[in-house]
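Our preliminary data section would be incomplete without showing what the modeling component actually yields. Below, a chain of 207 amino acids is followed by its predicted structure, encoded as tokens that our downstream tools consume directly.
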Amino acid sequence: MSRFSFLLHDRVATTVIVLIVVCAVVFIWASLERPEVPTFMPTVSAPAEVGTEQDMRTVTVDASDPGIWRFFDFSRGSVVEAPGAEEWDIAFRRFQIIANGGRGMEGQGGAASLEDMTFESVSSVPETGYVVAERSDSVNAVLEDWYDYSFTSHLLEPKPIVYAIRTADGRYAKLEMLGYYCVGALPGCTTFKYVYQGGGGTDVVSN
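Predicted structure:
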């Protein structure tokens, strides 16, 4: 190898190393300079039959334990502990969400994405078109896409999507995800707002 070729090779190698170092520094800096995120306190579990009440509610589920599903029942407006097979509608484990319907499930639950609609503009939900689980303990294919993930900040951000939910007993609700972080920006405080139609219809306008 000539002296010129050696110097050229050495310069290219040095440039590559410098670029790698710069990229690493930028990545680390971006990771440390994480943006502020909304944080939430878990809602106290207090199951109580809501009947035909049709209020808009906001709930934060403590789904921070990656080994435990936390079950939510719309008809009681709360997280429920150790429910029966048909006594829950949706469940959360960290960022994962399942609905009580489909293979391996006892309920009629499912989910549908209401694209290009705002929460307030959804006055009723469809009776058909709901996606159910493909297998037991399977994340619902519609609900698994509820967030955007940043590879620089490593944060989840809810997408502005409204979902129609069919409950385990065939009733309906509309739902929108609001957040994922507990106080201190710790992950797992899954937060959403919803309107539940307990009367058996598809109208989901809040009272």
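Residues 182 and 189 are 5 Å apart (CA to CA). The chain has two domains: 1-33, 39-197. Preliminary results of this kind motivate Aim 1 of the renewal.
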